[in-house]
Design brief:
Mean pLDDT: 88
Structural class: alpha/beta
Number of strands: 9
Strand content: 15-25%
Distance between the termini: 57 Å
Largest sheet: 5 strands, mixed
Order of helices and strands: HEEEHEHEHEHEEHE
Helix content: 25-40%
Low-confidence stretches: 1-20
Oligomer: single chain
Length: 183
């Protein structure tokens, strides 16, 4: 049997879709027509703006994103059992609000390979990055994972859950505080 050059094998695997690399989730497209958002309460504090390097190498500017739509930040770690327990419900909510609310996963202490394994195991279909410096976690007062934060369109902190949140409660808060119609 003739040996296949490594480059040819890699190209064939890429073309066939068989790779071990996690697929880079796409950012939501334009907000669908007919979707409206609640105005944040005047007393709601501004969310700390930051950029996040995603696992696929892209850089995501969160302030740019929340100018278009609400954002849910999911601070997690690959070794966190509570994060693992809540992830399936978070995935369902992220799928329900697919082009309306941007979900972003953020790990601080996990190794990139462990985060990639977590993404593959739990089927995360939203952007995920690692906060290597820990500055973003500090600015959002993450004592330990999970922490889920809901940010309004326009960048106001609406609600945070220091121990994470279930899907039904998150849906309720998105509908009451962030998405007025179309969710």
């Amino acid at each position: 049997m003739k040996a296949v050059p490594a480059a040819a094998l890699a190209a064939a695997l890429l073309l066939s879709g068989c790779t071990d690399e996690p697929r880079a989730p796409e950012l939501p497209g334009p907000v669908p027509a007919g979707v409206t958002f609640h105005e944040p309460p005047p007393a709601a504090p501004a969310a700390p703006a930051f950029t996040l390097k995603l696992l696929d190498g892209r850089t995501l500017d969160l302030a740019e994103q929340w100018q278009q739509r609400p954002v849910v930040l999911v601070f997690f770690e690959s070794f966190c059992s509570v994060c693992r327990d809540q992830q399936p419900e978070l995935n369902e909510v992220a799928e329900q609000y697919e082009d309306i609310v941007l979900f972003v996963g953020i790990a601080t202490e996990s190794e990139p390979a462990d985060v990639a394994d977590y993404i593959a195991e739990y089927g995360l279909d939203y952007p995920v990055g690692i906060d290597d410096s820990g500055r973003t976690a500090v600015r959002y007062a993450v004592a330990e994972p999970p922490l889920v934060t809901l940010i309004s369109k326009g960048g106001r902190l609406l609600r945070g859950w220091p121990a994470g949140v279930g899907g039904a409660e998150l849906r309720d808060h998105i509908d009451r505080l962030a998405v007025a119609d179309g969710g």
